[in-house]
């Protein structure tokens, strides 16, 4: 694809994996010029029925739509370069956006978040610092795991989000972690609250007692004890496991189950519900624009339309 050199390494790796698993085995032998819309439709239906690489069934609508977008991007490039007259994906019908909707977002209340963080800090302070940082900044997992101490200004209470980390698969050599740009390709500055700054100071002091190398400017804030990147997926699994333990300790009715990514949603939801301007929240999250934030979190203020109507009526009464 034309834009491959502009993509993050982890994105390129994901594209290659999906091409290898879901496109080449089905369409690889078919000359591109003979590919038709109905053939693309038949391929997607086959993926939905029996597309799983382990042979246990079909792919989700979300995965099928994702693989379709990869194929569409490649064929669009071919049309643009004059190697293909017509893009057959223009005449195909992938799963709709509603069918491919990601898992519903979950968010903790402020009380639930505070309760969990207190418990997690007593259970495993190292991991708890990661959960607090994600919840307090709205950073993506990949961004937090790539943050270094040189990005953190504890005196000013600020953190610069400059990069992200992801996995790429080397042929015959398994996976490796590589750093790349943030999702937007731009860095941003996120202000830290006093409690998070204090927690970072305590955390850094403790890490420094283990090894001075863990607190040098270039060191990763949330590194493993050997100073290396934590693996993103294993980091998420640690969170899931700790939530399970916390629910046992605190009571399942006190703490709903959420994913690690939902700490980002919790951050945004709590701020928006408290009246923080959408533009400010959008900047903290690293969204390309505030419209994305409004679209994703339109559920936060279901009653704002009624409030607007009441305010307008009050103006007329005045």
From TrEMBL:
GO terms for biological process: DNA integration; DNA recombination. Residues 85-105 are annotated as: Disordered. Keywords: DNA recombination, DNA-binding. It holds the Pfam family Phage_integrase. CDD domains: INT_ICEBs1_C_like (cd01189). Residues 1-79 form the Core-binding (CB) domain. GO terms for molecular function: DNA binding. Residues 103-310 form the Tyr recombinase domain. Transmembrane segments: none annotated. This is Site-specific integrase.
């Amino acid at each position: 694809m034309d834009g491959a050199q502009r993509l993050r390494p982890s994105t390129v790796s994901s594209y290659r994996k999906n091409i290898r698993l879901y496109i080449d085995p089905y369409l690889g032998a078919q000359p591109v010029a003979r590919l038709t819309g109905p053939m693309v439709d038949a391929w997607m239906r086959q993926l939905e029925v029996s597309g799983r690489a382990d042979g246990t069934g079909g792919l989700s609508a979300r995965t099928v739509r994702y693989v379709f977008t990869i194929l569409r991007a490649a064929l669009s490039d071919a049309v643009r370069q004059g190697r293909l007259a017509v893009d057959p994906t223009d005449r195909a019908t992938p799963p709709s956006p509603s069918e491919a909707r990601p898992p519903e977002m979950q968010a903790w209340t402020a009380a639930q978040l505070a309760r969990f963080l207190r418990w997690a800090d007593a259970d495993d302070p190292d991991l708890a610092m990661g959960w607090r940082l994600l919840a307090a900044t709205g950073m993506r997992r990949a961004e937090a795991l790539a943050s270094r101490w040189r990005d953190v200004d504890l005196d000013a209470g600020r953190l610069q989000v400059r990069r992200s980390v992801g996995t790429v698969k080397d042929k015959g050599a398994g996976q490796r972690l590589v750093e790349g740009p943030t999702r937007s390709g731009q860095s941003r500055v996120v202000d830290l609250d006093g409690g998070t700054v204090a927690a970072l100071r305590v955390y850094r002091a403790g890490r420094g007692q283990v090894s001075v190398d863990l607190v040098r400017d270039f060191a990763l804030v949330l590194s493993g004890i050997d100073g290396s990147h934590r693996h993103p997926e294993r980091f998420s699994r640690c969170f899931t496991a700790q939530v399970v333990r916390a629910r046992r300790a605190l009571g399942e009715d006190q703490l709903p189950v959420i994913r690690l990514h939902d700490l980002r949603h919790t951050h945004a939801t709590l701020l928006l519900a408290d009246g923080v301007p959408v533009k400010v929240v959008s900047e903290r999250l690293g969204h390309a624009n505030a419209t994305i934030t409004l679209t994703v979190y339109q559920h936060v203020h279901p009653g704002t339309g009624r409030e607007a109507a009441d305010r307008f009526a009050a103006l007329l009464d005045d």
